[in-house]
Structure of Glycerol kinase:
Amino acid sequence: MSRYILALDQGTTSSRAIIVDEGGHILKTAQKEFRQIFPQGGWVEHDAREIWSTQMGVAQEALTAAGLRASDIAAIGITNQRETTVVWDRATGQPIHNAIVWQDRRTAAICDDLIAAGHESLFEQKTGLRLDAYFSGTKIKWLLDHVPEARARAERGELAFGTIDSWLVWNLTGGALHITDASNASRTLLFNIHTGDWDDELLAVLDIPRALLPQARGNSEVYGETAAGLFGARILIAGMAGDQQAATFGQVCLERGMAKNTYGTGCFMLMNTGGAAIRSRHKLLTTLAWQLGGQRTYALEGSVFVAGALVQWLRDGLGIIRSSGEIEALAASVPDSGGVVLVPAFVGLGAPHWDAYARGTILGLTRGSTKAHIARAALEGIAFQSAEVLEAMISDSGVSLTELRVDGGASHNNLLMQFQADILGVPVVRPKITETTALGAAYLAGLAVGYWRSTDELCAQWQVDRVFEPVMSADERVARLARWRKAVGRSLDWEDRA
Ligand SMILES: Nc1ncnc2c1ncn2[C@@H]1O[C@H](COP(=O)(O)OP(=O)(O)O)[C@@H](O)[C@H]1O
Ligand SMILES: O=P(O)(O)OC[C@H](O)CO
């Protein structure tokens, strides 16, 4: 038996490789940021070749730093930023355009047209998603309509579409496998989450040829092995999941009613709803959590587009901090936000508002406002968005949460976590390992090759780092949330429609 699992975590801002041992400990991590491309306001692209080169680079770097060889790795698990869309040439393996990132709003008008044509409930019913530019479907349509010759070539079967999982597997296997997994497929607007297959009716509405699509597989199975020459020896690829579903698995939220919130570029709260695909009454998404041995588990999801990215903006856009970690001390230097409220609707608002035309606002500024108040309002804005999502989730699921498990880069911010617990009125629990996305991918791969025998083994590995208990009074919570809602109202429907 080989001794480790290699998890590849391809995120929105960086590619990471993490080596995990049998006890679920992280032996080595390597990480590399890559370019964010903003060709126009509201557009966000990545160079798919750079995604592949940084991902391969960090995988090799982690192995070398750990002093391991390919033969020491039992399997690779892949997890990825979801929805981001790549279309490439099957013959050359070259992308026909930059990847269109999940945050990209260029297809908002296509969504408006589809809604005006009465298609919204069809998509919602079959995919559990909303007709929003966030998802892959309209991004694929845009590429086919705008890249010269793309539609004709797609119809001839010369092109391949994939989310980042597919793109990585294609490259890892030297073009031998064009596959995706159920969790990633469920984010495309093309996949019927009740039948577990691509849906011809939806493909027809979006005018996307089936020949473009990868084969959709389960989340934990041996798909194939890496191409000769990549790592010295071939390694099995045995687990794949979208990063938020992988984090839910890594947080071992394996029972119905358990939930996690990940604070990365955005904030994504998922609640395991077991075998039931609950249809939200509050604009949450119904999504596939994972498919194991043919058995589908569903989740309710609240997707918030900007969380840690707001902290990056304070760093790179405003220059009021030099590193993301500095925000905590700056925000803690004042007792409160001094009445400042910041709604980070930089790319519109996701759950529960779904307004592609909302834009960021800072309200309540006075002559006494300082950068510390803005920093504090920024952290509070992240937490308020999650509070709105949790309220919707409790109402939809009927489950009263006893705790919220948290992870992701910004979950290291204690001030943010305390405010989150206060504004939710629910304890926030941070585990010792916050790289739960990678851990989830490692678990899925390890289970497929018998590295771990059962999920019971995984549950025993999860350990608490810190619990943040709510201390804010109920009256204050209600008043703060009311003020937040007022501020959100000011940010909605701001950008002119195309
Ligand atoms: N101490 C901190 N306080 C607030 N935000 C932080 C802190 N440390 C990191 N972040 C934010 O977390 C994000 C990175 O988290 P990560 O989980 O790596 O995201 P992703 O997977 O989306 O790339 C960045 O947006 C960064 O600004
Ligand atoms: O890369 P992250 O961690 O911000 O996750 C992005 C999400 O998967 C988008 O749906």
Remarks:
- The chain has a mean pLDDT of 95.
- The pocket of adenosine-5'-diphosphate (ligand 1) is lined by residues 11-14, 264-265, 308-309, 311-312, 324-325, 327-328, 408-410, 412-413 (CB under 6 Å).
- Residues 4-243 form a domain with the Nucleotidyltransferase; domain 5 fold (CATH 3.30.420.40).
- The longest strand covers residues 295-304.
